[in-house]
From TrEMBL:
This is MaoC family dehydratase. Residues 32-138 form the MaoC-like domain. InterPro entries: HotDog_dom_sf (IPR029069), MaoC-like_dom (IPR002539), MCH/BMMD (IPR052342). CDD domains: R_hydratase_like (cd03441). Coiled coil: none annotated.
Length: 158
């Protein structure tokens, strides 16, 4: 049974599966919103080992004119992980993996901000046995301001 999914898996899919050819440019995949709190900052500090006071020392940040610690740019980018939404469930076992990511941090995010990430298919490039799905990754805050703009690329089996 190596390499096979258990039979029960097929009855517990979150969304019906579609192949590469059924995907469309312009399809959007909103991801769960998140309100940044101390737990987010502490967890990211533990994972990244980034100990710069701009991310964790409120008094230091206020002395620089910020209302509080700044969320790390990579922390904000992490909120665009496709696995937090339905896209990887939609493509199922055709997903080979992420092959590229880029991002521009456009605004600061602070504790108490609510972030709204979304992925949108911008390009579908079929190859011989695989296809590349390019997605725009965006994050907006509770004021509708764009905090992050980026791109993900995923490799799928055809």
């Amino acid at each position: 049974m190596t390499g096979e999914l258990p039979p029960i898996y097929g009855t517990h899919r979150l969304v019906p599966q579609r192949g590469f050819a059924e995907l469309q440019v312009g399809e959007r995949f909103p991801l769960p919103s998140r309100t940044l709190g101390d737990g987010n900052f502490a967890a990211f500090q533990a994972v990244s080992l980034d100990n710069h006071p701009i991310h964790y020392d409120a008094e230091y940040c206020r002395s620089l004119g910020h209302p509080g610690p700044l969320a790390h740019g990579l922390q904000v980018l992490c909120f665009t992980a496709a696995g937090a939404g339905t896209f990887p469930h939609l493509v199922g076992e055709a997903l080979i993996g992420m092959i590229e990511v880029s991002a521009k941090i456009l605004k600061h995010a602070y504790p108490g901000d609510t972030l709204y990430p979304c992925l949108e298919i911008t390009e579908l490039t079929p190859q011989r046995t695989t296809g590349v799905v390019k997605m725009r990754a965006t994050v907006e805050n509770q004021h509708g301001e764009r905090v992050l703009d980026g791109e993900h690329s995923y490799l799928l089996k055809l």
